[in-house]
Amino acid sequence: MKLKYLTLSLLFLITFACGENKKELSDNDHSDTVQTRAPNPNPVDIEYAIFTDPALTASKTSDTRIMDSLIQYLNYTPKGADVYISIYLFYYKPVVNAVKTASGKGVNVHVLIDESRNGKEKNISTYRQLKNTLREPSTLQWVFNDAASSGTEAINHEKYVLFSEVHLEQGVAKNLVFATSHNFILNGTKKAQDAIVMTNEELYNVFLNNWKEVASRAQSGMKDFTYTIKNVGDSITVFFFPRRGNGKWDGKNTILEQLDKLSEYNKDTIRVLMASWSGKSGVKIAERLTELQTKGVTVQVIARSSSSDAVKSALQKLQEKGAYLKVINTATQGEHSKTMLIKGVWNGEMQQIILTGSHNYTSYAFKYNNEFLLRLKNSALFSAYWNNWIKAKQEF
């Protein structure tokens, strides 16, 4: 039986996923819990979502539950198991230390860390620490995304960790995917974030193949990356960016393609909690939401004040058409989620859709960056995402 978000009391990480964590933490605080007991040999399936608490992030107060959960999984990964990390910003000391500890006890840790744009300057201390401590066959690679013409502006913006095996009190969890909006940084704990944690062999292999593809282009050739869409059963789809083919962007917008599947507008509802909007791609998404609002769709959007002026203008027009719009002041409030929720007649059927991952509504996210977008149809996690959006609306 799947372990859902609302039944996390069955998991060892209840304190982190559902409990209150109101103290302001420093980079040096972390749990050193490392498993020493023999594992329960029974297999266990996991499927749940974690959110930083909007009541805390609305005032930029740290909520470390997502990072704490990641650390616990690293601590409970056994010797000989594999961990694959693909990350943009990585300098949160508790996670750095957990990776070093895992490698020290014999876990095979494979890390891809961004060195493009701001990445190398901010990540260099972590890179040096891991280079000096990771033991073979663990690996460490800079990712220099050269897809943009300038050669420095594109980034590896992915944020996921794959565990071949984790030994929990409840049993052995295999092929675990930890996919999140959260960079591994202290500042990220002060922002609205989400993570999906799921044991699924096919999904694990889909992400692992992406990891290997990015690794193969870590220093050159990202401009020739091929946009990939992978279906896992009939309810999970992962989109891997940049959206390129034959060495160039195909000019299309994956978010618009999802919105184009709506048909009975008076029955449709859209909720958006999106960190970054910019460029023509961001404007087009705002314009499409406005068009849908005028056709009868109920649209509600939470965005950041750091959006481009063109996007702000487009969102203002959306509000003028009757949509709910809340613009977060990034100076005092923290938001980093990249989520769209759709409830309505989608692709000809009444469905509930979660769109989440690392993907912002920016032109760079489509054209150049390594990103992932995870789409879940009619998932048991939808209510958790819906309720989190409502709480964000109340708190921000």
Question: Could you please describe the fold and organization of this structure?
Answer:
By secondary structure, the protein is α+β, with helices and mostly antiparallel strands. It folds into 2 domains: 5-224, 2-Layer Sandwich (Endonuclease, Chain A), CATH 3.30.870; 242-395, Endonuclease Chain A (Endonuclease, Chain A, 2-Layer Sandwich), CATH 3.30.870. 29% of the residues lie in helices and 27% in strands. It has 11 helices and 17 strands. It has helices at residues 14-17, 54-57, 65-75, 93-104, 119-133, 201-216, 254-259, 279-294, 309-320, 363-367, 382-395, and strands at 47-51, 82-87, 108-114, 139-143, 159-168, 171-180, 194-199, 228-232, 236-241, 244-245, 248-249, 269-274, 298-304, 324-328, 338-346, 349-357, 371-377. The strands form 3 sheets. Strands 8-9-17-16-15-12-13-14 form an 8-stranded mixed β-sheet, with helices on both faces. It has a 7-stranded mixed β-sheet with strand order 1-7-6-5-2-3-4, with helices on both faces. Strand 2 (82-87), helix 4 (93-104) and strand 3 (108-114) form a beta-alpha-beta unit. Helix 3 (65-75) packs parallel to helix 4, helix 4 packs parallel to helix 5 (119-133) and helix 8 (279-294) packs parallel to helix 9 (309-320).
